[in-house]
Amino acid sequence: MSNKKYLYGAAVQGIQGFIFGTNKLREIVGASELVEQICTDLFYKIANINKEDSNIILSAAGNIKYVFDDEQKCKDFVKIFPKSVSELAPGVTISQAVIEFEGDDFSNSIQKLEDKLKEQRNIVAAPLEIGFMGLERARRTNGVGVKFDKKEDEVFDTATLAKINAGDNVALFEKMSGFKPKASELAFDTEEITKSGKNSWIAVMHADGNGLGQILQNKGKDFVIANKFEKFSKTIEESTKNAIKKAFEEVVKKEYDAKYRYPIRPIIIGGDDVTVIIRADLALDFTKIFLEQFEIESSERFKEIGLSDYDGGLTACAGIAYIKESYPLHYGLSLAEKLCSDAKKYVKRTKDDGKLEDPEYGEMPKSAIAFYKVQDSFVDDLKTLKQRTLQTKTGLSYYAGPYKLSDLDNLYKKLQTLKEEADKNDKIKAVSKLRQIVTETYKDVSTSIFMMERMKEVNKDFYSDLNLSKELEAIKNNGKSQLLDLITLHSFNYGNKEN
């Protein structure tokens, strides 16, 4: 009897472009719901399986990996699935690949599958719609117009209509919160996210687990033999879901005011990936709790499935892009992903003391967060942004991150000091001197040094509590200063809709 198996993989191409091809939150949420359906309900239906199937490796966040035991069943699925995807979510292109393997060759098969999927992404898919010159186009998307809405005075294409129709779905919000919300409690516009806050800043947060691919390569063969893929996949999914639920309950639910709508919309929750749009002042707390809980949840669940080599569980990194509510959301997501990647690079090459190292094989990187507040009208690559907006002419850098979770306690203590100072005195005065010092470092370093030393004389406690001697040293020696991060995070709790 043949023991051949067929490792199937699928990936939604251009998932970011599909979800963020519009700046309307309802359509973004609808597109996210469609991607969620592709990887869950639609996949289960076409494959004639359920979510408990033991051959599922991954089915979330635009990615599917599944082991078929039968060659013909695999062939039939490959033929039908792309058409079914296009019917559910017009405009989505899906890449597929299959690797045949024997029981002992799974680890190599995973890498071969990834390579094949990359090749498939380079093949241009033929559009299902043909737009002749005489046909009306949807002006926002350039898709073939199929419906004119008099109320909106706009022509819509099939993809946009599908997103709008799916915009009322609440599967992702329910996955995050644990309950089914009323439509009146949900934000369908970015302005509705900020209404309950003190200013018009939102945050796009993207988080991604560390080392998942490494575990699959190292343990894939054991999973096949022990039939543990379904348990492993469920472990990751449940760890992510429980972690984001904890963050929602601790940060967002406590902040919820029935006069407004929930100041958050989840965009991706699947596998070890999470993307949310959230009110700016809640973003760091939400992300910190999510990352901490993700480590706890995955550690406990890994023990249950016998992954003793990873008893610390999975860690994750996150990027937070702070943007104005009217700023193009696709730029915010792109920046959040770059910041997440920057955090990953940092934890992979540093020890607790910050020195470079070559991690030993199998070592799990730590969790970390990187963030950036967008002040410009456009976004460059992250390296250029750092140099252009966070570095003075002398070489002083205000990009103090990425922050490991262990670093955040110290940051929070300083923010509490700023808050107490703001509550005691005028809210603006608490941070205005620090802002002036930062401004002077771009103009005249000697003036900023004088102002800092003067602060030490007139407000010793404030100077000491914020450990400003370290910031002064950074200014003098063109090192890294945390001042701008403190000002940025503090400012989200004050101000008005105009700032």
Describe, in short, the structure shown:
This protein is of the alpha+beta class and 499 residues long.
Describe the fold and architecture.
This protein has 499 residues and is an alpha+beta fold. It has three domains: 117 residues, Reverse transcriptase/Diguanylate cyclase domain (Alpha-Beta Plaits, 2-Layer Sandwich); 220 residues, 2-Layer Sandwich (Alpha-Beta Plaits), CATH 3.30.70; 84 residues, no CATH class. The strands form three sheets. The protein has a six-stranded mixed sheet with strand order 8-9-7-10-11-12. Strands 2-3-1-4 form a four-stranded antiparallel sheet, with helices on both faces. Strand 10, helix 11 and strand 11 form a beta-alpha-beta unit. Helix 4 crosses helix 8, helix 14 runs antiparallel to helix 15 and helix 14 crosses helix 18. It is globular. The termini are far apart. About 2% of the residues have low confidence.
Query: What is the number of strand segments?
Result: 12
- Net shape: globular
Average pLDDT figure: 85
Q: What is the count of DSSP helices, taking H or I runs of 4+ residues?
A: 18
Radius of gyration from CA coordinates: 25 Å
Strand order, sheet with most strands: 8-9-7-10-11-12
Amino- and carboxy-terminal Cα gap: 70 Å
Please bin the fraction of helical residues.
40-55%
Binned strand content: 15-25%
* Unreliable residue runs: 351-362
Largest sheet: 6 strands, mixed
The multimeric state of the shown protein is single chain
State the CATH superfamily name of the largest domain: Reverse transcriptase/Diguanylate cyclase domain
Structural class: alpha+beta
By CATH reckoning, the class of the largest domain would read Alpha Beta
